[in-house]
Amino acid sequence: MTRYFTNEHEWIDVDGDTATVGITDYAQGQLGDIVFVEVPEEGREVSKGGEAAVVESVKAASDVYAPVTGTVTEGNAALTDDPSLVNSDPENSGWFFKLTLADKGELDGLMDEAAYKDFVASL
Amino acid sequence: MRYLPLTDTDRSEMLNVIGASSIDALFADVPEEARLTGPIHGLPHHASELAVERHMSALARQNTVAGEVPFFLGCGAYRHHVPASVDHLIQRGEFLTAYTPYQPEIAQGTLQMLFEFQTQVARLLGTDVANASMYDGSTACWEAIVMARRVTRRAKAILSSGLHPHYVSVANTMAKFTGDDVHSSLPDLSAEGDIDALIAAIDDDTSCVVVQYPDILGRIADLSDLAAACQAKKALLIAVVTEPVALGAIKSPGEMGADIVVGEGQSIGVGLQFGGPYVGLFGCKEKYVRQMPGRLCGETVDAEGKRGFVLTLSTREQHIRREKATSNICTNSGLCALAFSIHMTLLGEKGLRGLAEANHLAASAAADRLARVPGVELVTPTFFNEFTLKLSKEARPIVRELADRRILAGVSLGRLYPGVEALEKGLVVAVTETATAEDVETLATALEEVLA
Amino acid sequence: MNAINQSGWKPEMNTAEGAAPATSTGNRALMLEEALIFEIGTTETTGVDLPETPKGASRLGSLARAKPIGLPGLSEPETVRHYTRLSRQNYAIDLGLFPLGSCTMKHNPRLNERMARLPGFADIHPLQPVDTVQGALGVINELAVWLIELTGMHGVAMSPKAGAHGELCGILCIKAALEARGEGHRKVVLVPESAHGTNPATAAFAGFTVENIPATAEGRVDTEALKARLGPDVAGVMITNPNTCGLFERDLKIISDAVHEAGGYVYCDGANFNAIVGRVRPGDLGVDAMHINLHKTFSTPHGGGGPGSGPVVLSEALAPFGPLPFTARHADGHIQLVEEETVGEDHPHSFGRMTAFHGQMGMFTRALTYILSHGADGLAQVAGDAVLNANYVLRRLEGVLDAPFAKSGHCMHEALFSDDGLPAGFSTLDIAKGLIDEGFHPMTVYFPLVVHGAMLVEPTETESKAALDQFIGALGSIAERAKAGDASLKAAPHYAPRRRLDETLAARKPVLVWKEAPLAAAAE
C-alpha cells in the first residue's frame, strides 16, 4: 500500500485498484472543530478535481475534491455520527471515502509523504 | 427634528475632532455632479407627530375595516381574535428593537423564543423539526420545492390544482429562472380534490408533489395514499397549510406522511395587515434538516454548563456558503414568529382545539344557512372553516355589490382566477370565531336579495 | 451628613463574607432564569376564554384529529411573565448603542408603531375589493413615489419581503431584460470581494455564475480590473454603495457607464442607502436596480430578525420587467392594483409574482410615517449626522485600533477597524465579547472579509454625542486591556445572562426542538 498527498491537503492510500481518501492532519488543524461531514454515496462517479465531499466547521464549509477519478465504493458512515474523528484521527479512522481507480496514471502527479511535508513547511 | 439627538454645538465639536469644515465636507468622495443641491422634489419639510398622524389617519379611514362589518374573507389570510397581551408583549423594546441573535450571550430571549417556536410549529405540522420561520407561506412553498430538488436531484414539481393560485404563480415565476419543471392545473368546482390525478402523475422524474390542506376551495382530503405513492417513486410530498388553526381539528400532514410541511402562520397571532408581514412555517423530516433553508436555533450549553441557545447549522446559509447557500434568505420573520408563539402559548392544546372546534362548527352552521339561499349551492361537503359556494350568477360583481352594502362576503374565484369561465360563479367563504350568527344572517339575507 | 442612612451601617464590600453567594433559584436579583414553556405549561392550561361553541354538525369526515398535539398552554399572567422575563435577556436599541455595521440599528420611532396599528391598515384583508382599500393602496402608492424621488429612479417594485428578496427581484429583472433582448447567454455576474454574502447567493440562485472583483488598497472596487472583465458574457455587476468598508464608491458612475457600454446592468445593494439618503440619488450614478431595506434606512423595527421589507427601485431600462402586483394611480385619484388579470394590457413584460398578496404593508405604513416625519430637510440631516457620528468614532479610535482605510479619506456611515496590532492570543471576538460586559452590543465582526478580523462600527444618527463618547471610552479601554494581556478578556462576557456558548456542540448534535431529555443530561 502506498500513500500519496495532494496540494489540496488530501491523502490517498492506494492498494491495487482501490484507494482510501481523507484529509491531512494539517487540513483538520486549519479547519478547527469539524461538526459535519458529507461523504459521497456508494456508486457515485467522481472525477479528479471534482467535488466529492463537504466538511464543515461551525463557521466554514469546505469542499473536498476527488484526488483521482473513480467510482465510490464506500463513504465512511462513522463520520455521520462522530465528525470529530476527523479532528482526532484524520489520517486513519477519520477517512472520508473509498473508491475504485479509473486511471492509475493519475497518481503520477501526486506527492509522497516527504514532498508533502516540505509543501506544508513552505506554506 | 425629534429623532436626532446632536445639537449644533455637538456637531461643531465633532467636526473639530475630525478636522472637517462642515458635514457637507464629509461627503467629499461623492462626485460633485452626483450631489443633490436642493431638497427632494415634492417632499415637504419635517412634520410633527400630530401632523403625520392626521395624514395617515385620513388614509386609514378610506378603508373598510374587517372588524366593523360582516366579514368572510379567507383564501390564505384569516381573521382571528388576537389576545391583547400578544401585541403588548411583541412591543416590548427588547423584542421589537433587537437584532438577529448573532451575539447569543445577550440574545437568549429571542433565541429561547425561537426554540419554543420551532418546537410548537413542528408539533403542529407533525414534522420532526421546524425552522425559525420564513417570509410567508408562498415563499416557504417555493423554498420547499427547491429543497426537494436538492434532496432528490430531480427538477419536476407537480402542484395540486387546489394550491393557492398566488403560491402557484410564485412557483411558476421562480421556475422560469431556475429551470425547474413545474406542472400546475386549475381546480374544478367539485366536491373532490385531485389526489387520484396527482398519484397517477408521479413518475421517476418527479421531485415533489405539492398539495394544500385544506385546499384553496376549503376541501380537506386524506394525504396518506398520496404520501405512499410519493415514497414509492422516491419523490417528496410537500403539504401546504394556509390556515394553521385547522390543525387543531384535523390530522396533521406530517402524521399522514408528508416529508415537508410548510405553512402561512398569519392566522395565529399576526392579524390581517393587508397581506403582510406574515410568517412562513417550515417543517420537515429530520433526515432532511441539512437541506433546509432559513435560520435554525439549537440548544447547547455555555462555558459554565448552563443551558443556552444559539443559531446553528449556519454553514447552509448565505453569509458563509455565499454562492453555494441553500437559499439567499437572510432574515426570518422574527417578530411575527414571536406573535405566533405567544398566541400559541396562550391557547395551548386545549385552547387551540377549542378555537378550531368553534371555527368549524360556526362554518358548518353558516354553510347550512347559506345553502338554503335560492341560487346558492354548497360545492364542498367536507371542510374546516372555509367552503365554496356556487352562485347562480357570476360571483365577482356580487362581492362588489355586497361590499357597497358594507358586507365583505368572501373571495370570488373570479378575483383569484380571472377569465376562467368555469370558476366565475364560485365564492369562497371563510367563517371564523369572529363572525357572529347575526353576521351570517346578514350575509344570507343580502345574498337572497342580490341573487333574486 | 447622610439623611438616608443614619444608623451607621455600612455595606461590607470586598470581604470573604460579602462575596456573591449562589442562590437557590439560580436567579440573581433582576437577572431571572426562565424555563421553557414545555417545562412550565400543560396541555390542560389555557390563557384564552373562547366564545361559546356554536351548534353545528361536524364535516371533518375521517380526518378529525385523534392524536394529541403536545402544545403546552399558560394562563395570561404566566404568559406575560414568561415573555417579559425572556425579553430581559435581550440587548436592544431601546437599551443602548447598537453599533452593528451594515445593519443600521437606529431608533425605532413609536409613532410608526401606532400608525401601523390603525385598524384601517392593520385590520383589512389583502383580497378585499379594491374600492374598499383605497387608503391602503394610497399608502403603497405614496411610499412608492417618495422612494422613486429619493433614489432618482424610474419605477419601484414594492412586493419583495426583505432585502435579500429584493436583491432577487432586481437580479430577476436583469435576467428578464437580457432574455427579452435575446441575450440570455450573458451568465456572469461580477461581485466585489467585500460584498454581502447575499449577493453571490442571490446571483447563483437565479442561475448566474459569480466572479469576484478585487478591492484596491484603499478599500474600493478596483475599477480597472472590473472594466477589464466586462464583455459579452457579463450580465451585470452587483455593487454596494457606500460599500461595506464604509467608503463611497467614487467611480460608480464611471463603472456604470462602462457596464452599460458593454451591454450589462448595474445592481446596487442598497443596504447602506441610509448614509446618502436625501443627498445623493443612485439613479444619478447610473444604477439600474437597488433594493432598499426599509428597516435600515427608514427605521422599521428589526424585531429580533425580521420581518423586513425590500422594495426595489428600477431604472427606465428595467422597470417594465418588475414583478406583480403594483399600484397605479389614475387621473381621477382611483388607485388600481395591477395583478395577473390586467397585466397583459398594462405591463406585458413583468416577470411575474414573487409572493402572495402585495408586500409588507405593515412596514410600508411605518416607513411612510418615518419619511413624512423627517421630510426632505430631516432626511438629509439623517445622512449627515450618521456620517458625522461614524467619522467621529473613526478619528477618536484610529490611534487605539488599526483602521486600515483611515487614510482613504472620510468614511461614510460606518468606521472599519481590523485586528492588526492586537497582541497574540487576542482576537476580534474577544474585543466584541468585552464590549458586552461594558453594556454595549458588539459591532459587526469578521465582515467585510477583505479585512482581517474586521470590526465594523455603525453608530447611526440617533446616538447622542454623550453616548458615542461613552462607547469610544469603552472600546478604547478594551483595546488597552488586550494590549496589556488581560486574560479576563478571553473569558468575557462575565456579566451577561450567559457565558460564551458552545456552538460546536450545537452543530455536531443538533437539538432543534424540545425533547423530554435535555441535552446536558444526554451528553453525560
TrEMBL record, chain A:
The keyword Nuclease does not apply. GO terms for biological process: glycine decarboxylation via glycine cleavage system; protein lipoylation. CDD domains: GCS_H. Keywords: Lipoyl. The keyword Transcription regulation does not apply. Residues 18-100 form the Lipoyl-binding domain. GO terms for cellular component: cytosol; glycine cleavage complex. SUPFAM superfamilies: Single hybrid motif. Gene3D superfamilies: 2.40.50.100. This is Glycine cleavage system H protein. It comes from Sphingomonas yantingensis. The gene is gcvH.
Automatic annotation (TrEMBL), chain B:
It catalyses: N(6)-[(R)-lipoyl]-L-lysyl-[glycine-cleavage complex H protein] + glycine + H(+) = N(6)-[(R)-S(8)-aminomethyldihydrolipoyl]-L-lysyl-[glycine-cleavage complex H protein] + CO2. Keywords: Oxidoreductase. The glycine cleavage system is composed of four proteins: P, T, L and H. In this organism, the P 'protein' is a heterodimer of two subunits. The glycine cleavage system catalyzes the degradation of glycine. The P protein binds the alpha-amino group of glycine through its pyridoxal phosphate cofactor; CO(2) is released and the remaining methylamine moiety is then transferred to the lipoamide cofactor of the H protein. Its EC number is 1.4.4.2. This is Probable glycine dehydrogenase (decarboxylating) subunit 1. Residues 1-445 form the Glycine cleavage system P-protein N-terminal domain. One of its GO terms (biological process) is nucleoside metabolic process. Pfam families: GDC-P. It comes from Sphingomonas yantingensis. GO terms for molecular function: glycine dehydrogenase (decarboxylating) activity. Belongs to the GcvP family. N-terminal subunit subfamily.
UniProtKB/TrEMBL annotation, chain C:
Residues 186-303 form the Aminotransferase class V domain. Pfam families: Aminotran_5, GcvP2_C. Its EC number is 1.4.4.2. The glycine cleavage system catalyzes the degradation of glycine. The P protein binds the alpha-amino group of glycine through its pyridoxal phosphate cofactor; CO(2) is released and the remaining methylamine moiety is then transferred to the lipoamide cofactor of the H protein. PANTHER family: GLYCINE DEHYDROGENASE (DECARBOXYLATING), MITOCHONDRIAL, GLYCINE DEHYDROGENASE, DECARBOXYLATING. GO terms for molecular function: glycine binding; glycine dehydrogenase (decarboxylating) activity; pyridoxal phosphate binding. Residues 1-24 are annotated as: Disordered. Residues 386-483 form the Glycine dehydrogenase C-terminal domain. Keywords: Oxidoreductase, Pyridoxal phosphate. GO terms for biological process: glycine decarboxylation via glycine cleavage system. It comes from the Bacteria. The keyword Repressor does not apply. This is glycine dehydrogenase (aminomethyl-transferring). One of its GO terms (cellular component) is glycine cleavage complex. It catalyses: N(6)-[(R)-lipoyl]-L-lysyl-[glycine-cleavage complex H protein] + glycine + H(+) = N(6)-[(R)-S(8)-aminomethyldihydrolipoyl]-L-lysyl-[glycine-cleavage complex H protein] + CO2.
